[in-house]
Amino acid sequence: MLVTEIMIAILLGLLIVVTSIYLTYFSHINYQKLKNNEQNEETPKKKIVLPIVLSIYLVFSIFIFVTKVSYSLSPTLGNQIHVSVNSTSMAAKNSANTYLKENKLNNQIAQYDIAVFDKYNEQEIKLYDIILFKQENKLIVHRVVEIREDQKYYTQGDNNKQRDDWTISKDQVLGIYNHSLIFLSFINYLGYTPGFYIAMVGVMYDLGVLLVYDIKKSRLTKELIKKDTE
Q1: pTM (two decimals)
Q2: What is the CATH number of domain 87-182?
Q3: What are 199-220's pLDDT values in tens digits?
Q4: Where in the chain are the domains?
Q5: Which of 71, 139, 218, 228 has a CA that sits 20 to 30 A from residue 48's CA?
Q6: For residues 50 and 212, is the Cβ–Cβ distance under 8 A?
Q7: Which residues are bridge partners to 167 per DSSP?
Q8: Are the C-beta atoms of 16 and 198 separated by less than 8 Å?
């Protein structure tokens, strides 16, 4: 993951540099044209310059932010629960967990995946199901590795060597794993990388440039209009 995060940070950094230089230069040129119109005593029309590349960049950065915030709150949609799984306990198969290989269990959940769970409504929980449950006021996503006669469950992360130090009762279960949202999982993952914070700095800078030049152009336009009416 580290190499991927570094590459994402570099690519977003380059995008920020290009869009910031382009936006600053283009806004400055546009402002100078406005001043030249003032010298020619022509009344210019007010224009707001927002390059297409910057628009996509802004929307994408905001989308990452919204996705990160939304799924950190574990939203409930219809009969399903969407959860951002922020740990690595289900991200790989630990060789000590022989039951994974023996039962061909391949449904690993990578860190920052958006996992979709069917709401638990007293449906049957089977051995090796992945469940969403609450333990000590924390949401946990682990696999059922043993079902006791009293209908309590032992759980374990696929990436953990040992089972959890607790048993789970039915009233603690919130949902049963269905699938993961691959595209949104990647977007959500971006929200936890250094590149996301670099992107947000770029967004703030670019918005600042737009605001400053928009104010300057508005003032100059008002002065020109005032001169034309005198």
Answers
A1: 0.70
A2: 2.10.109.10
A3: 788 878 877 887 888 888 788 8
A4: 1-76+192-230, 87-182
A5: 228
A6: no
A7: 154
A8: yes
CA-angle at 181, arms to 188 and 52, nearest 5°: 55
DSSP letter string over the chain?
-HHHHHHHHHHHHHHHHHHHHHHHHHHHHHHHHHHHHHHTT--PPP-----HHHHHHHHHHHHHHHHHHHHHT--EETTEEEEEE-SSTTSS--TT-HHHHHTT------TTEEEEEEEPSSPPPPTT-EEEEEETTEEEEEEEEEE-TTS-EEEE-TT-SS--SSEE-GGGEEEEEEEEEHHHHHHHHHTTSHHHHHHHHHHHHHHHHHHHHHHHHHHHHHHHHHHHH-
